[in-house]
């Protein structure tokens, strides 16, 4: 059985997708796929809880998953379990696997959600340079394009500007130049783990919303 991605956006797309998942869940349960429980829970219109996100992150980081089920998980979280409590719980669990720092000095991040679907220029990256030129300290959190035409890292690469590949170099750049670009997959391995799956989906998911909430500076105020 195959589920065409375009079917998801049809009038009965969500129900078709739910039915498709239930069939896949029954098969995968026999194979003891660890994500089956959470897919079933959301397909029955239950919100995921903090403990659920803890286990989901463990499964993803252990690489013990089926690509189809992770893709389904991202879409179902986006459509059926996207609320304040879920976002907060997901952020907390992702940060457990992340490289973070704490700096209370005045700085700003202008990370966008991306994926506007209009092939627009990367406004947040352009704005970071302008703000830094005006004397504002900018710790720009960003990524490559996932569901849009260009991400911050793509823009920098086109300009032959390398993103810092160590925390020390990022902090040195930030303090000496007042501007540093923090490549999300470097600081958040879980984000990097899902990059290919998100790219193949080609649509906005919960991670577009999570991006601005996952800044590596745990003391960031703005």
What is the percent of helical residues? 40-55%
By DSSP (H or I, 4+ residues per run), the number of helices equals 12
**Uncertain spans, ≥5 residues at pLDDT below 50?**
none
Largest sheet composition: 2 strands, parallel
Shape: globular
CATH topology of the largest domain: Transferase, Pyrimidine Nucleoside Phosphorylase, Chain A, domain 3
CATH class of the largest domain: Mainly Alpha
N/C terminus separation: 47 Å
Describe this structure in words.
The protein has a two-stranded parallel ribbon. With 222 residues, it is mostly helical. The longest helix has 18 residues, at 13-30. The protein is built from twelve helices and two strands, in the order H-H-H-H-H-H-E-H-H-E-H-H-H-H. It folds into two domains: 5-95, Up-down Bundle (Transferase, Pyrimidine Nucleoside Phosphorylase, Chain A, domain 3), CATH 1.20.970.10; 123-213, Pyrimidine Nucleoside Phosphorylase, Chain A, domain 2 (3-Layer(aba) Sandwich).
């Amino acid at each position: 059985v195959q589920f065409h991605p375009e079917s998801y956006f049809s009038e009965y797309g969500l129900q078709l997708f739910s039915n498709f998942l239930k069939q896949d869940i029954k098969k995968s349960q026999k194979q003891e796929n660890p994500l089956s429980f959470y897919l079933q829970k959301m397909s029955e219109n239950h919100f995921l809880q903090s403990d659920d996100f803890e286990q989901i992150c463990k499964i993803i980081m252990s690489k013990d998953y089926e690509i189809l089920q992770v893709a389904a998980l991202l879409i179902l979280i986006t459509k059926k379990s996207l609320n304040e409590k879920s976002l907060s719980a997901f952020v907390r669990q992702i940060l457990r696997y992340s490289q973070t720092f704490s700096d209370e000095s005045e700085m700003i991040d202008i990370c966008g959600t991306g994926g506007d679907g209009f092939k627009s220029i990367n406004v947040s990256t352009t704005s970071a340079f302008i703000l830094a030129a005006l004397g504002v300290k900018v710790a720009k959190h960003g990524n490559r394009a996932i569901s849009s035409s260009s991400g911050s890292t793509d823009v920098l690469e086109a300009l032959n500007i390398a993103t810092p590949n160590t925390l020390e170099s990022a902090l040195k750049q930030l303090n000496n130049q007042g501007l540093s670009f923090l490549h999300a997959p470097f600081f958040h391995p879980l984000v990097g783990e899902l990059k290919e799956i998100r790219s193949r989906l080609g649509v906005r998911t919960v991670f577009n919303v999570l991006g601005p909430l996952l800044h590596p500076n745990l003391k960031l105020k703005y």
